[in-house]
Amino acid sequence: MKKLIFLQESGQALVSLLFVAIIGITIISSAAILVYGNTQSASITEQGTYAYYIAESGAEEGLLRLLRNPNYTGTALGQSLSVGSGSVTIQVDTISGIITSMGIYNSTVRKIQLQTVYNNGVRTISSWKEIQ
After folding, report:
1. Cα–Cα dist 50/114, whole Å
2. Which one-letter DSSP state was computed for residue 76?
3. Separation of alpha carbons 8 and 13, rounded Å
């Protein structure tokens, strides 16, 4: 009779072990999915930051070129300047004094717009902002 009871207990141990293994695999899989999602989110945020800094450098470049040449209108249509591993396109409206810089890093795009005022031979920046 004791052998029969022993066999029933070893079957319960196997079921308990499988149950614990399934719970463990579920927890580990959930953690791995969360880590992957956070990594992707951080990567997208970092790309956006790089694109923003590229756009800022383009805005500064456009302002510098406009100061040196009051007739500067930005990069040629369809062309861009290389900045690190990204690129920037600059547009300058010489009449209104608006400089728009579009920074591109991988597939992320950020834009910066400067409003300048030219008065008595002095160009001042009245606004510097990110636009959509």
Report:
1. 19
2. P
3. 9
Question: pTM for the complete prediction?
Answer: 0.75
| CA distances, 41 to each of 36, 80, 107, 108, 112 (Å) | 9, 28, 14, 13, 23
Tens digits of residue pLDDT in 61-78: 999 999 999 899 998 888
Residue 8: which of 16, 121, 74 has the closest Cα?
Answer: 16
16 DSSP assignment: H
Q: Does domain 2-131 have CATH number 3.30.1300?
A: yes
Q: Where are the domains of the chain?
A: 2-131
- Strand, coil or helix: 11: helix
